[in-house]
Amino acid sequence: MTEGFCERLREASEPLWGGLLEHPFIAQLADGTLPLDRFRFYLEQDRLYLLDFARVLALAAARSRDETELRWFTAALRQTLEEELVENERLHQLAVIEGAPDRGGSGELGPAAGAYTGFLNEVGFRGSSLELTVALLPCPWSYAEIGRTYGGRVADHPIFTDWFAYQSSPEAQAFAEQMVALVDSRATRLDEGEFDSLAAVFRAATRHELAFWDASYTLTQWAQPTE
Description:
By secondary structure, the chain is mainly α. The chain has one domain (5-216): Heme Oxygenase, Chain A (Up-down Bundle), CATH 1.20.910.10. The chain has helices at 5-12, 16-21, 24-31, 36-62, 67-97, 111-126, 129-136, 138-150, 160-167, 170-186, 192-218. The relative contact order is 0.19.
């Protein structure tokens, strides 16, 4: 069952997984028509999400079962803090310079992002080490696939082109490939019941990914009291 385990997880998550690649936010980002305020909102929410994602990676490192897992999660934590967050801030500064309106994305995690990080933390504290790794997988894996899918056909844009360049970079692709390999190497001798349980975790994480894109596209925030 080890061979193609992650591919089986992805297949079991359809049509949600395909919805990530075809989301209107991504499609408009690729053709250069996405309104800048939505991109800025996404970056601001993503920064808050990445900080929590890093904390969950630290939890995964603490729960690692061997040196291989410990080293991988430690490296992933470092990449998130020293590369992804740095690139996020750079793109955010460019969006502000280009005049992207502020839609309040930097204040706090919105409903979608908050539900996503809450889910990751719940799996981190209540699930197994493998369940946590599976829960973390859809984020880097889907971003890498988006980078590969759109990388060669992105419209020239002063900001969006750089976002796709980062997602399709060798570093981002390697990060996802290594995580897939880690899960595949750990998913040995599982029965169908265990696969179904892990598939449910992967599907839930994929659904949260999709909700994050939805929220970024619609600028969804917490409801405010009416005056």
